[in-house]
Amino acid sequence: MSWAYAIASFPALPLADGFGQTLVFKDFLGLPAAPWWAKLAWDLAIIAGVFGGMLSVIAMFCIWWERKVAGHMQCRFGPNRVGPIGILQSVADGLKLMLKEDLLPRDADKWMFRFAPYVAFTPVFAAYMVLPFGPEFVFERRLAVGVFYILAVLSVEIMGVIMAGWASNNKWAIYGAMREACQMVSYEIPLGISIIVAVMAAGTLNMVDLGNLQGGGIHTWLIFRNPFTFAAFFAYFVASLASNKRAPFDLPESESELVAGFHTEYSGLRFSFFFFAEYAAMFVVGGIQATLFLGAWNDPFGIIGYFHAKFADNHHDIQLLVLNAVASGIFVTKAMAIIFVQMWLRWTLPRPRIDQVLYACVKVLLPLSCCLLLGASLWGLLVGSRPGVPWVDYQPFSWSDWQMTPVALATQVILTLIGLAGLTGIVLWVGYAAVTGRNLKQRLTDPADIIPHAA
Amino acid sequence: MTNALLAISDEQLATNVLFYALAAGVALSALAVVLSRNIVRTALFLLFTLGGVAGVYFMLNAEFLAAVQLVVYAGGTLILIVFAVMLTSKSPFIRFDPKAIEVVVAAIAGAIMLVALLAGIISTHGPVGTPGAIVRQPLDWGTSQYPVADLGQALLGDYLLPFELASVLLLVVMIGAAFLAKGRRRRAAGEEKA
Amino acid sequence: MTLTLATICIPPVGLYHYLALAAFVFVCGLLTILLKRNAIGILMGVELILNAANINLAAFNRYAHGGLPGRPALDGQIFALFVIVLAAAEAAIALAIFLNFYNNIASIDVERGKELRG
């Protein structure tokens, strides 16, 4: 059984032939080999143009979307003045932040105060390097420790937040920073363990290989591989909420308690860096979740996997380009769906205290993830065999072709059916609520009658 | 262009530039750790040093090690250090300056150590090609196809005993640190001396 | 000047460059231990020294003979992994001790440590 894994570990060379470089330099321009400055320029253009632009668009879209979601969940409209459905609200917010006065507290550590937003933003930006938007649309596909690398750079972000809190010379900011450090560091453990559970089912840390392994349709997705990855999906989700300072765990920036937490003293463009970092990190974390559990760029029917197996052998570069574009759309949609659930939770759940947050981590989530790890190891030992890459090693829609033990296959199918049933149930429930909500006798958005003043 | 002028290959130019940039970053940050007077800034420069060293590990084909360095050192130990700094500093701008004689002695000791180490490095060479010798040129034995799998097999195979001992040690350290830091109430200095 | 720079910078980066870097970081760590009066500063010096040793280990892992072609030896990396683990453990204990020290003496200055009784 061939594994078709990543080529090699990362040699110490930043200039290598990627898909995009081959496409542009060999196919379009006809050069035999691109000179080093051209490859470097291409890499820098991708970073600045694609990743920088995408980050900005994602952040602006998420800011608008968050306010719309918040509004509709609170039975009001959210922003609807600036632009058709308020879509230009983010532009207005951005303009406002850029035009604000650049304040610096008098006793603050000036250098650290100025530097902290960048230390918080850069690791998140670096994590986009391995996000698999498509089987070839990865900036660096050869990194053998892809998922672990993202975990590693997200740990550096904590330091930026602490620096911001400390440098503000403001006790609310320091409280926010210390709470945040406690919380993020504690929740990294269940986060890492949940990732390990999924990686054990897959057998690789490389993001592109993780995506390739799930290309055979919804029944090949890792979330349905064994019951432990199914549970790890939810454990990872909760841990990622805390590590993003998001949803019920947003004590660092608890608006009603600490003024604004660790970014109290920040205003204008510096504040927007923290904002961007938060939304970018939400996308990264959603992207990891999509890659590890929900099939990365693959659709539920295995079409992309099928065409990729067909096109990748010969040199169908244009078809590959189109396929990758479609795959990127699917990947972004999945990450956005996870972001939507994060926003949904933010406006639904109350905020616990810091000791309750840490209790939930150390006494609930950590033992749970350790049990999942134990279970996944035993599963891998007793039951599991890994099926390989769909469409390349086996045909995912002919059951006799799967070279797995019957127990593993049966588990996969049963879990897929349970998952689909659950998803259908949730969709129907939400739809029912949306439909019947319109028929409420009195909607909260209708203004109350004016009581005439008794003369 | 530059590489044609110097008659070296593209990869070598890239590797050299990357190494010197990273090395400059690490060296300058380490120097800043020595020279900085504010303890919080020292921690910040230590963060840059640790990040730079992680970059050096990436260059040395040790990617798992680099990721572990970032997670454990920069994202764990350093956070712990910064916490301790915040808990033990009465004011952020207090400074403890060493006496001048100490600075001189330390500088002399450091200079002697540096010269000795560099002399030791430069004077070591073995005949090229003999097994066991450390050659000057980078020898490329290729990279493994499954580097993380190799690491896992080594940790649970050849190095199983140190692995298990390290886990027992970590358990002991966790219990010990929790007990030590449990926090006796801080007594006033007068009461302590009585 | 440019000639010496060129003779140093043009050869491919080899073992000696990494060893020299590690030596410099080691000396910086040594100086930090000698010069800082804040106990946590001394701990940071210890961390620098451990990092220098780790760079050495990783460099030897890459450039020395060992293992087979296509499956190079991993001894240096594993050593370095264990060093990182132990450094984290030691930092935790050291900081717990420093917190106790601070709680008892109300200062983190190691010069005050001469008042400790046996």
Describe this structure in words.
The complex is a heterotrimer of chains A (455), B (194) and C (118). Chain A has one domain (100-430). Helices cover 62% and strands 0% of the residues of chain A. Chain A has 13 helices and no strands. Chain A has helices spanning 19-28, 36-73, 89-99, 110-127, 146-167, 171-202, 207-213, 227-243, 269-293, 303-313, 317-346, 354-382, 406-437. The N and C termini of chain A lie far apart (90 Å). Chain B folds into 2 domains: 1-122, Four Helix Bundle (Hemerythrin (Met), subunit A) (Up-down Bundle); 145-182. Helix content of chain B is 71%, strand content 0%. In chain B, helix 3 packs antiparallel against helix 4 (63-88). Chain B is globular and about 55 Å long. Residues 126-136 and 186-194 of chain B have low confidence and may be disordered. With 118 residues, chain C is mainly α. Chain C has a single domain, classed as Helix Hairpins, CATH 1.10.287.3510. Chain C is 72% helix and 3% strand. The chains are: A mainly alpha (455), B mainly alpha (194), C mainly alpha (118). Chains in contact: A-B, B-C. Chains B and C meet through helix 2, helix 3, helix 4, helix 5 and helix 6 of B and helix 2, helix 3, strand 1, strand 2 and helix 4 of C.
